[in-house]
TrEMBL record:
Top-level taxon in the UniProt lineage: Bacteria
Residues reported to bind S-adenosyl-L-methionine: 186, 214, 219, 235, 295
Role played: Dual-specificity methyltransferase that catalyzes the formation of 5-methyluridine at position 54 (m5U54) in all tRNAs, and that of position 341 (m5U341) in tmRNA (transfer-mRNA).
The keyword Manganese is assigned to this record: no
Keyword flag Methyltransferase: yes
Organism: Pseudomonas benzenivorans
Annotated family: Belongs to the class I-like SAM-binding methyltransferase superfamily. RNA M5U methyltransferase family. TrmA subfamily.
HAMAP family listed in its UniProt record: RNA_methyltr_TrmA
Protein name in UniProt: tRNA/tmRNA (uracil-C(5))-methyltransferase
Amino acid sequence: MSRPQFDPATYAAQLDEKKQRLIELLAPFAAPAPEVFESPREHYRLRAEFRLWREGEDRHYAMFEAGDKHTPILLDDFPIASARINELMPRLKAAWQASKVLSFKLFQVEFLTTLAGDALITLCYHRPLDAAWQAEAEKLAAELQVSLVGRSRGKRLVIGRDHALEALQVAGRTYRYRQPEGAFTQPNGEVCQKMLGWAFEALGERDDDLLELYCGNGNFTLPLATRVRKVLATEISKSSVNAALANLDDNGIDNVTLVRLSAEELTEALNEVRPFRRLAGIDLKSYEFGSVFVDPPRAGMDPDTCELTRRFGRILYISCNPETLAANIAQLSDTHKVTRCALFDQFPYTHHMEAGVLLERR
């Protein structure tokens, strides 16, 4: 993980720069001015991972500038990370400094925290983990009041839960999420809530059905499902699918059918190119899709999936890469126009930004 250039005094200027960049990217499509959703200036990042750098008998949290893996930046705290991570960092370090069992061959530490106050720590080792390690780790987890995961090659030992518990507020309702260790979660919780609220409002109250691609752990699925008759959602990651199913059950949402397929495979299924056993018992023709929601990886939608979304009257698109978003919009612009646009500052002090658009059929 490279170190961002943290300077709260520059926040307003860097956010305006991102806004102008998004406006320029979407100008060819006559997009309206973006709604801008700010981040907290510090303690906004709920996830963090650190390599450990050894000096003598001591190990220190370390990060590196992009492209330089040989010059460590040693850290005692990390202002962009959540207050919970900053509270845990010195206590965890003191624990491994005091215990050879915990520190031996330890090379990486990962923190996952939530707005709800939960925390999960992953310790990564270049050695097998044994009963002595587990006994020490159990004491440490109890002392820090966290769940703890130990990882070594091909092995994982879990103390407590293998997921963190989150609670997010959308339109006056609290949605509860299990966020699995090692799976993707939105790093900026406060901005994530704003994204969910914007998507909820942009979708609106509907009397038809929603297709969702790349649903992850159900982050958007839960609130959006309350706006439509029913949802067909897809995700390829098995751990994310399992988390999404648990999250749907935990929140009492029963109008979602979730299928473990890639977006490309679902495109083939809807085009009747070939059947899929995972769709057995699901009548695709029973759905009356009025909208499609997509939150693809940085590469954006592949051309065939992009063509699939053209079928729908409304395309709600969340993007972590506005360049590929613009390329996808270019493919769709002859049939759809951008009617809403938003900038979500998930990653302050970096060039990365999250954007959202609503495209509606011309």
